[in-house]
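TA notes, week 10

Several of you asked for a full example with nothing omitted. So below is the full record: structure tokens for the whole chain, then the designed sequence directly under it. When grading your own attempts, check the secondary structure regions first.
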């Protein structure tokens, strides 16, 4: 004897997650800015961390979306970009050292090498300010990101 399957009741559509509380917003914004510290160990995973925070919380908090996107762009420009520029400066300095001109490039290469270090400090400043509930905007990057979030 075959049994007929009973009809399944229609499943309700999943409910959207509630917006974040102000405390949760500050915490996740702080984590987005601190994601730059992950780069010290991995070299680039801080970018992934900021991107993941953005993708998870962009619909639940414009504040977290703004700060995580800022952190992502900031890391792309001032960590990855400046790191590549510093590497290029040192390679050029090394090559030009053969003809003695490169020795004059050493101070310039040293200054360029400090840009990623300054980016780390700037990221920590952003984390501290957002954890205290203050708005934080990276120089140049904040202006790039703000129109993206306003259009959503």
């Amino acid at each position: 004897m075959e049994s007929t399957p009973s009809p399944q009741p229609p499943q309700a559509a999943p409910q959207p997650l509630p917006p974040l509380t102000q405390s949760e917003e500050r915490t996740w914004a702080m984590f987005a800015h601190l994601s730059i510290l992950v780069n010290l160990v991995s070299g680039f995973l801080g970018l992934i961390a900021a991107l993941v925070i953005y993708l998870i919380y962009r619909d639940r908090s414009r504040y977290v979306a703004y700060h995580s996107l800022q952190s992502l762009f900031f890391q792309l420009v001032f960590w990855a970009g400046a790191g590549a520029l510093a590497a290029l400066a040192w390679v050029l300095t090394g090559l030009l050292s053969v003809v003695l001109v490169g020795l004059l490039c050493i101070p310039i290469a040293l200054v360029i090498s400090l840009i990623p270090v300054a980016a780390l400090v700037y990221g920590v400043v952003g984390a501290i300010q957002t954890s205290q509930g203050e708005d934080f905007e990276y120089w140049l990057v904040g202006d790039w990101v703000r129109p993206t979030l306003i259009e959503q």
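The chain has six helices and no strands. Use that as a sanity check on your answer.
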